[in-house]
Automatic annotation (TrEMBL), chains A, B, C, D:
UniProt keyword tRNA-binding, yes or no: no
Record GO terms (molecular function): inositol 2-dehydrogenase (NAD+) activity
Enzyme Commission number, as recorded: 1.1.1.18
Gene name linked to the record: iolG
Keywords: NAD, Oxidoreductase
Residue span, GFO/IDH/MocA-like oxidoreductase domain: 134-251
Family: Belongs to the Gfo/Idh/MocA family.
Organism: Leucobacter manosquensis
Cross-referenced InterPro entries: Gfo/Idh/MocA-like_OxRdtase_N (IPR000683), GFO_IDH_MocA-like_dom (IPR055170), Myo_inos_IolG (IPR030827), NAD(P)-bd_dom_sf (IPR036291)
UniProt name for this protein: Inositol 2-dehydrogenase
Superkingdom assignment: Bacteria
Any matching Pfam family: GFO_IDH_MocA
Sequence ranges assigned to domain Gfo/Idh/MocA-like oxidoreductase N-terminal in this UniProt record: 6-124
Length: 335, 335, 335, 335
């Protein structure tokens, strides 16, 4: 508390970058010092709002000497180079998921991460959602005995633009990757992946050979089985639920409600208002908590931040799911 | 089980009489022997369906020598005389509520009930509803500590015809009387009643100076307070809920649902299908259980049937509520 | 209504046979005429209770001339021969699932079924559950648009004895077969199956090389994906839920509750009483409705009874799931 | 937005004063300039935290010339004098409820409020709770037709210290006053009050002749009836629910949940975690929204802030309830 706030350098000022800027500004333990974006107008706008310095060059930001930690919120293909540059400057990194779409590039970076010892955290925000976090803590505490089955339902309100689909790496690397990490948050000994994907409604998925509907089944060495159900659209709004079934009971995570008002009439009873729109609304608290844990990591305190290795593991699972969905065969993984 | 079934004489073959006829026929411990109704076609129809003998005369039925117990489902003004005739014949009675609309007539009958020792049970079916019964048993078992507050919400789907309102004795004696008995099912030391009634939507209530909307507050010697909220109509269907609040927790009884299906879409989420229509659907199980307890009473076994005294107590509370709603003053009662 | 009741010959008087005997006895449109069981004491007990004739020989029952329809509730290996004998006697059959564990025997029987035109219905009782049936009807009515995903969760309270596991044909043919039929109740163009099974807690499963935990993923030609999640045990009681996700909304089927009472205290709030124990309690209504539809089938009326072909399709899916779980590869099916 | 933030003078730095200080600091439209408390250490602590000036004298604060609006969070007996001083200085006031415990003092202040035209808002925070506010807006929008019944359940986690009870003015003026305002938020033509109070568990209530359990029934000119159910303790945590029943449907406001996780096991199913502790947690959002509406009022914009007249009306209802609970007679009110 009496420590100096961590001075952040934020790289990337798109939608998610702005969320992080706001979290940093709201935290008493963090301050936004520098902002970089090749689209320099964006950098200037964010910098002005929070009293930071703007630049179009991430290199300039990293070399400024005025930042204690880097937050990478730029497009995926830039992540590996920016992590590397940060590590070489000795700066801890909180990087948005995924590390990269190509596991070879991730593996090439791995020795540097290991040798420098500088912390690299991955932006798996959902681990910090109070609902998921509470469920996980209660499972770990043994409240439902041995965990035998995990069902994760994850549906986005609407498919992204076709252009984005084309560079996204496919539904498993782009969307399911959050669910793979969530699976590992609960179960860490996954040994094989089996997946099925179809394209039923989204023109972008069809155009780029991607799936808009997908199911992945993960088998753990313990015999536990994880089922992930995804859709690129959802008429009911952002749908992120979970069910952890154990030998002694079951914990379920539901969608949060806009408010507690329920309506009954002659057509239906106990109807609730629609779910909150999308992840920025739903996971606002989670982003703040994620930042708090990363600050602890930077300060060398005990922290629950997911790491580079967690990011790599999720990508391996996504690759395996993609291959399984294409071949119809289960794919063994080593994480 | 190996005992002979109880032979029932059913008096009255209107809607509720037919319900009781079906319950008797379905029970392995009861059989329908005689049916009486001055509207003799109704008696014949019911008798034919279940292989009983029909008559237009209740006296004939009581004197037949072929019935072991009487079930009175005829109009309220006939109840007192029919109970008296049954008792003089030594026949146990299950009588629909209320005993009478006039407490003087009830009190006049009281000594005979006491002196004969022949059981008289009252048709407070709701005590046998599995939901209310479970809540009451759990309260009695101490699950919520001392019972401090009871809220009973009771709303009929639609107001009865204006003609019926005119002879009903008013909302408190006709409708709330069930809730007064429910209150006593949970709390037996009620000492005063305060009530408020208004007429807001029902022409029949206005025509006959009755209320269509009412609230009654009962104070117990223990300090517990019961609140009863009534309406003669309900756009959400038959609405019968309860909340028992105690020093250690709270038990709530909700409305049963038609089925377990819930709908979510962009307008509302987790919406349930409408509640079942009315008391015949909702309390079908309760009527069967009520009969079962009465059979035990007839056989001299331990039974939870509400008694003549329970019927009298509910009427005293209804009278007090009526007076309070008219005068604005709380009315003390001795039960 | 004015038609003569259908005279039933019941073969098999174990647990499920007794359920059917009770359903037949309770139906105004059916009567139990003959009962057969090689364990003739069981046959006599059931026959005595409902006024039927008992025999140890199914052949005698079929040849009696006193039955209009056959209900087969004997062990699975006898089903094919009994169906054949009934068909040759011109008697419609309601047969418990599965037809047989060996698709070759089912296929061998198929031409006879087709050529005689005598109705053969399969005992997929869950189609008649009011909850599942309501959800299916609403999906068919277009309430959620195009059906894109179906999640079926199905968990038995406790694993059967190891002996039973040994002759059960394995979890997919014994337990999941109900879920395969449920999948086809909603989606009829399934083209491939992928499955994962593990053994984590049940000694019987381990002993016989069976699974106690399983997930199956079915792909439809339309692109819809069905996910089935099974466990041989469930600490929360019999757990049978479903979620139908469509382009316009979602319908979910929950577990029925014992009653509507909820408890709140300092430890937890809005807690409901445990789910009903097992299928006899949960699906009591469904067995009655199943019989009603079979009666219509026997009478040549329009009926929703699942057929021999439905029984065969479910077995093909079970076989495919078994192979997929063993090999790790998705298996194409033609139904 | 481009307007200067309103400079607030906060009088009183107890628990609720600190909540308001935090809300002011968090709002981009408000700033905390001065803080007054005769317990000057408290004033200094709050002032230091938010960069304000501290004083022990409310008069000094009001006369500072550096505040645009006054927030009164001092003990109830000081409210009337502080409102008067603020008005004479031309400063708009947001005053915590109640205005005073003595309606005579409130009435004596009334002409000044009317003649100066300077806004006086009352701190009925619950109107700004998103749950209650949504329900009220939907009722006003006609979603449930004519409002016929309102049930308000309001229970505090634990009774306050006996000393506080002694100066609180009694449960109706201290606690129910919020519910009286909530009733008027929905229904503004209340004409009479009937109340029942008991003392069953709280030594402080017994010592000071107060009630710990209370029910109030309000009758509206329209015939609508409001029922308020209060307890000074609640084993289930802070319990604030509502049910608005209308001619076309019903809206219910439930307690918010800590998170969306539900637990099922062999003892109970679908159990939720305990409710949030008390009003500071539950109504955090409401306090911020309350401040926002007051800022609008100060700026002369359209605002939904409850007014001095609302504060007076709630006190009249509380007085009437107190008299009714003491005499047993309904009390007519003119608001």
């Amino acid at each position: 508390m009496t420590q100096q706030p961590i001075r952040f350098g934020l790289i990337g000022t798109g939608r998610i970058g702005q969320v992080h800027a706001a979290s940093i500004a709201a935290s008493p333990e963090a301050t936004l010092s520098w902002v970089a974006d090749p689209f320099v107008d964006g950098a200037h706008a964010v910098a002005a709002r929070y009293g930071a310095t703007a630049t179009e060059s991430a290199e300039t930001l990293i070399a400024s000497g005025e930042v204690d930690a880097i937050l990478i919120a730029s497009p995926t293909p830039t992540h590996v180079d920016l992590i590397e540059a940060s590590l070489r400057a000795g700066l801890p990194v909180l990087c948005e998921k995924p590390i990269d779409l190509d596991i070879a590039r991730v593996d090439a970076l791995r020795p540097l991460v290991a040798s420098t010892g500088v912390p690299v955290a991955l932006g798996f925000n959902r681990r910090f959602d109070p609902n998921h976090a509470s469920a996980q803590a209660r499972v770990r505490a043994g409240e439902i005995g041995d965990l035998e089955q995990l069902i994760i339902v994850s549906r986005d309100p609407a498919a992204p633009p076709a252009d984005y689909i084309g560079v996204s790496g496919g539904i498993f690397r782009d969307m399911t990757i959050h669910d793979f990490d969530m699976a590992r948050f609960f179960i860490d000994d996954i040994v094989s992946v089996s997946a099925t994907g179809t394209r039923t409604f989204d023109a972008g998925a069809r155009e780029h050979g991607d799936f808009d509907t997908a199911v992945a089944t993960l088998r753990a060495a313990s015999g536990a089985i994880v089922t992930i159900v995804n859709s690129r659209h959802s008429a009911i709004g952002y749908d992120q639920r979970m069910e952890a079934f154990g030998s002694k009971g079951m914990l379920q995570v539901g969608n949060p409600l806009q408010n507690t008002v329920v309506l009954s009439n002659g057509h239906a009873v106990e109807a609730r208002p629609p779910y909150p729109e999308f992840f920025l609304e739903r996971y606002a608290e989670a982003y703040a908590a994620e930042l708090g844990e990363f600050v602890k990591l930077v300060r060398g305190e005990s922290s629950t931040s997911p790491t580079f290795e967690d990011g790599r593991a999720a990508l391996i699972l996504a690759d395996a799911a993609q291959r399984s969905a294409e071949t119809g065969a289960a794919v063994a993984v080593e994480l």
